[in-house]
Structures are given as C-alpha cells and as structure tokens.
Amino acid sequence: MPTAVILENVVKDFGENSRQIVAVDRLSLNIRQGEIFALVGPDGAGKTTTIRMMCGVLQPNEGSVTILGIPMQTEREAVKKRIGYLSQRFSLYGDLTVDENIDFFAEIHRVKQFKERKEELLQFTRLTPFRDRLAMRLSGGMKQKLALACTLIHTPEVIFLDEPTTGVDPVSRRDFWKILSTLLKSGITIIVSTPYLDEAERSTRVALLNEGKLLVCDTPEAVKASFTKEVVEVIVDETRKAVLALNESKAGISAQLFGDRIHAVVPKGASVLKELEGVLKREGITARSTRLISPSLEDVFISRITS
Q1: Which of 95, 119, 179, 233 is most open to solvent, judged by the fewest CB atoms within 10 Å of its CB?
Q2: Does this model's pTM top 0.90?
Q3: Low-confidence ranges of the chain (pLDDT < 50)
Q4: Are residues 171 and 60 both part of a single domain?
C-alpha cells in the first residue's frame, strides 16, 4: 500500500538552555494511505506537536516530514492544498450558521461549484436538519461534526484530527468514530490523536507515545498480543484500599482502577490468582470476584509507562 506520511527522526523542542523541553524525541513513522492511524498518549506525550508538524504549522528542529511524497519543509503550500486539519478546540464561527461556516471554508480553500459537495457532507454528518442553526447553539458533538465537514469540503487526501472527541459525550464520540470508519471507504487517510485508548482500538494501527518517544507502533491486536503479562479483574468493596495494597505488595503486581473494578497486571503463572487473593486477605479485604481477562490497549500502555 502506498505511503501517505513519513516522519524520519523528527525532533521538536521548546525553550532554551536549562528550560528546554523536548516535546518530540527522534520520532519516525510510516503511515500508509487509506488507514486510520492513531497517535495515543497522555497529556504531554507529544501528540499535538506531532500533528502540527505533519500539517506544517510547526517546523521540526531536526528530521524530515514528507506528505504524499512532498517534503513539508520546502513545499508547504503544495501540501496544504491536499490535506485537512481539525484542531483540538472548536475554531469555527459561532455567529455563522452551519451552512455559512461550510461556505466560508469552501471559499478559503478556493473550492468552486461546492454546493453538491456541501449537501453530501451535511447528509454524511447528519447535520442537514440543523443547517440553519448558529454554530454557537450546537452541542459539542455536533460542533465536531461541523468542523469535520469544513475540514472535508475541499476533498483532502489526508486529514489530521487533533483530539477531536475530547470533552464530547460518549454517545457522540461513538457516532463520530462511525463517521470516520465510513469515511475510510473513500480512500482518504485519517491521522487522529486521542487520549482515549478505547478509541484507538478502532484504528488500523496505533502509535503509543510517552514524553515525546515512540513506545510501540502496530495494529491494536498486535500490540495487545505482544503483552508478556496477564491482567486480573478484581471486584472488591474497598477499591482504593485494595489498589494500594496490591501496588505495595512484593508480588510484582501493578493495579489500576477501571471504574468500580480493579485491573491488576501480574506476571504470568499458575499461582497468580492465589498470590493476589493472599495479598488482599492479609489486608482484611475480601475479593468478591477475581478472573483473568484479555488485556486492553489501556492495560498495555499503563504497564509500559509504569514498569
């Protein structure tokens, strides 16, 4: 499959001398055309900085960025015509209607005869019934759909979405990703950054980032399959006390809260459950349920950055 984006040993730092912060540290990626590629990591991992360098908003201190075979550093204007960018914050015009915002961005990109394209996008994002509503009166999820429609109006070949569902309710998040999956059928390349590991599981491939460094890049299934430990789901009444006890034990257990349950990452072995239950019992905690479960991307990621 042809390559859409290549990053080679990219470095981006901010500040000077002792206050210098390396946001992206020797990052190399090869993103294929027609895939959803997810950049995943916590705040400060370098996701937004990486997206902005790929879009030409920031220049790397070292390394190179190539988009659709075109070097970004020297031919940025040629690249910009073929890409779309949706930033973290809603950056459209609240005092314009849905229709007017799309028209405005079509004119910015010098798109002629875009009326049919606009109707397609309104239907695609399910915004047709709201086309006369002011953008400021849209819900968070609808604002992001409008932003996506404006990003797509000039028919880009690659789109960059920087944490598009942050602050959006779970139902709207799911709906937005369904739209992205449908969009993929057109052959477009989608590069999205997200702090949500459950979203990343829907991508074709995922790059896990931490402190500007690449931890792993592969399909979600391969990342999980490479996990060398096991995950035990624990249900107890005193969750916080149990997490503290498990993390302070000498049994090599790393525990995290997942809602009202605990995910305990443990070494592989037949006696794992007995050891875990023994740690809890010594603290006077009775486990209502303990069972081995398949690791999620979140389990893998947390284990990698804490081990």
Answers
A1: 95
A2: no
A3: none
A4: yes
